[in-house]
């Protein structure tokens, strides 16, 4: 820790990445709610059982990769916060790796739903970069298999039908207990564990700031609710945090 400076926990959801062109698949209007055949592609049972499902999943990943999503001003603001010497931990529901791409130290990012930047073998556990697997798809393989054992390659995300990683959850809860400022950004705060973490932070005396376009269940209890777009709201909030303006301690 860094002297008297308060620990800032930042929980991020899909809303921070929509400005980078990544759709909110899980949201109420998201693809996975509207289209059951799309949800199959990210559900572990059908994915492991069906070559056809995997072929479609690889096409979906190829198309998603083609967007070439880059960090936006919201991601960059959080990297600035760390660079300014403010102790910060990012807890993210996103799997896009954009916090790290923006310059936040990987060890300070906790990925609650894993990462889509990597793949691993469902059989032997061998892992590698998603980009290498997508290169094989581009070269004509419609369901690239593990190079070591021939097993099924899957993304390093938590797929539907799989539990969250207990160790990651415990770390997230510890951070929520120990932070002085809890910033909830671009998350509806309605789905576990995002629904729980602000509660833990509030119970341990943290200041809660909600930045989200839509109302959340925590708005009434939050010390501050910000409705302006994340890519403009976050740089302003970060400037205040760097000045110590939000610590209230
Ligand atoms: Zn393998």
Find the CATH topology of the largest domain. Rossmann fold
Strand order of the largest sheet: 3-2-1-7-8-9
CATH class group of the largest domain: Alpha Beta
Element string (H = helix, E = strand): EHHHHHEHEEEHEHEHEEH
Quickly give the structural class. alpha/beta
- Gross morphology is elongated
Distance between the termini: 16 Å
The molecules bound to the chains, other than polymers, are: zinc ion
Number of helices: 10
Runs in which pLDDT lies below 50 for 5 or more consecutive residues are none
What is the name of the CATH architecture of the largest domain? 3-Layer(aba) Sandwich
Overall strand count: 9
Determine the CATH superfamily of the largest domain: TPP-binding domain
Describe it.
The structure is a single chain. By secondary structure, the chain is of the alpha/beta class. It has two domains: 1-22 and 71-113 and 164-249, Rossmann fold, CATH 3.40.50.1220; 23-64 and 115-157, SIR2/SIRT2 'Small Domain', CATH 3.30.1600. The chain is built from ten helices and nine strands. Helix 9 (197-203) links the parallel strand 7 and strand 8 (207-211). Helix 8 packs parallel to helix 9. The two termini are 16 Å apart. The model has no long low-confidence stretch (mean pLDDT 92). It binds zinc ion. Residues 121, 123-124, 126, 146, 148-149, 151 line the site of zinc ion. Zinc ion (ZN) is lined by residues 121, 123-124, 126, 146, 148-149, 151.
